[in-house]
Task: structure prediction
Amino acid sequence: MDGLLIGGLIGLILGGVGTWGAREIAARRRAFAAKGLAEDILADARREADTLRLQAELDAREEALRHRRSLEAEAETARKDLREQERRLEKRGDLLDERLDLLNKKEGELDEARRALAGREEAIAAGRLEVERLEARRLDELQRVGGMSVEEARRVVLERVERDLTVEAGERILRHEAHVRESCRDRAREILAVAIQRFAAGHTAEVTVSTVDIPNDEMKGRIIGREGRNIRAFEKATGVDVIVDDTPGVVIVTGFDSVRREVAKLALERLIQDGRIHPSRIEEIVRDTQSEMDQHILKVGRDAAREADVVGLHEKLLDYLGKLKFRTSYSQNVLRHSIEVAFLTGMMAEEIGLDGALGRRCGLLHDIGKAADHEMEGGHPAVGAELLRRYGEGKEVAHAALGHHDDLRADAPYTVLVAAADAISASRPGARRETLEKYVRRLEELESLALGFPGVEQAYAIQAGREVRILVDSRQLDDASAAALCREVARAIQAQLTYPGEVKVTVLRETRSVEYAR
Result:
């Protein structure tokens, strides 16, 4: 038992020693392997460090080589610049040498010219002394011969020179005035022609009597009423005259006020359509028609201002402007005439560099006085100017209305343009008309007025009375008298006759000399 126990213990000891030995051997082996691995890693690290060191040395050498090349290139560029500067400096030095030689040459020529000038100055001084001596001798001789002192002779000479210069200046002024007058005339004709071509109106003359169509002649009796009460009530309410004659299917409405005549015409047409014609109904229809007419007049004024492109007008002026639709001048509608004048004035103003909008405003409102001339005292130019000032229009607009008939001196250019446009609109074909009796009478009055002046042999009214040509006796009147006669005839026509537009007066005078060679 003991032997077995000892044997077991020895076996255990030997097993433990063997196990420890095996572990020790394994540990040594692992340590040896780790040492070899560490040495391999260190060898790799050394090789990699050597490689990096060699690469860094190569990179440093390449960078140094690049830097050296850059420095060499800069040095070469600097050397080229220096060589170029040296060449330029050499060339500039050559140029300076040439300029110095040229300056030396010029200086020599200048010295020669200075010496020559000094010689000439000495000659001029000597000549001046000689001239003064001869002048003194001449003056002494003139005083001895003419018996005048130097001051008297100078005064005579200056007076003669002044007289000659005055004549020459007058001739130059006349030539310049003639040139300016001709240029202005040509320019004015061109502007008028352009304005007339750009604006072509087709409005013709209007009549001043209104007619109302009726369905049958029985309606005439109803309009007259029992013992004429209906027609009397209608005439009293409207302020017009109603003519009921034998003309079939027509009743004529006449009146001095065109607005009232239009109200009467519309009211009568409504009464005929309604069929109820008696005094109370007449008053009601006329009152309603008058109210509608007031609104219509204001609308017409606004439409006219919009058509003429005129803005900012007072409402009262628009009302007066609308009333012009029912006014005529020599059977020409005044509102259409005003719109024509507005367009023409605006065009001409723009042609000469003025304000076209202000020109249209002046043209549209130039006849505004005709809408109120029965309400205020004075002619329509003065009435229109007063209305325009009252309702806030500018001085140019008021002056154009006041002076468009040449009643005063035109201080503003727009007044002249409005006057010209007014004459163009009034004298265009189809604008105005008159009866044959008035036409013939006006021609006869023109000719008889011209024949009444002394020295007039014959007178002819031509171009529908817009021009009168006068033949005078050349033995009684010279050119100056003929010009004076022309002005006197024109003034007499303005003062004594009534005519649309303007009348041109032409005086013809000629002298004929006839001889026969036998």
